[in-house]
Amino acid sequence: MGLNENNEGEVAPRTEEEYAETQLTLRAIVSSKEAGVIIGKAGKNVADLRDETGVRAGVSKVVQGVHDRVLSVTGSLRGIAKAYGLVAKGLLEGAPQMGMGGLLRTDGTHPVRLLISHNQMGTIIGRQGLKIKQIQDASGVRMVAQKEMLPQSTERVVEVQGSPQSIEKAVWEIGKCLIDDSERGYGTVLYNPAVRVQPGGGPLMNGGGIGGNRSYNRTGHGADFSDAPPTYTNRRSGSDAANRPPPPTHTEDGEEMQTQNISIPSDMVGCIIGRQGSKISEIRKSSGARISIAKAPHDESGERMFTITGSAASNEKALYLLYENLEAEKMRRSQAQE
Q: What positions does the domain K Homology occupy (predicted)?
């Protein structure tokens, strides 16, 4: 949904009521114990949450050896803000019974770790941190945005610490930023808790890896709740797009072709392309996916868009290899600094 245009063709800001009714998905990382509190006995708590707020809410399945799970809440912004307030209240009250003594704070606050697309983080932080300060002042929470993207994803964590009431207010403000900047949220590679690959070892990514039955590249438009395959939007920018023949819709094997965009920080693009394109050629060859790279950054963040096209399996392998290269380069740089 875009901003409203008035008669003069100027863009008028949305009203509070329009924000309240806009549909979106907001995810958060929770520990296994927190997930237990949120779900409740025989799913009672999560059912009550849905009834009270009108949202769809669910927690990702347990992955052996992984302590994180993802809470997904889809609905109107009004419902989502209310739902996160209730989740924070439930965690606060449920902490002692769940043996979560370490998390119980005497000041009546509890942290909620929201997952935000790296591309949308700038909108929440604002220029020189003005927006994040404004959200904190308006709601009374303390917010900390992590710099690093989560493994094999383009999502980052924003930790929001405060009372249930202030968390509800903060989520409302954060949701408004995400609605205003929804365009940049497309193509987000969602974080999927999984056993991570060891450097030099094979991929141990049960629940989300290559050959797994669940791909981790859904864009959080409520697809978490259905078994239907995710839909992909091919958002190719550039004036020459109109003159190109339409891309094929199926591979030679008859599999449906899917297109996905990911943003790569511009200072990392070189290490992914490699000398004379050697690395990117290798990724194209071993994944079977077509990968095109935008010549110029797509916004002021300076990031460049990589467009991956191929079968679901090819795309997943290409993504995996791209992220493996990114992680290796990050590791190399941090060691070089030491």
A: 22-92, 108-179, 256-327
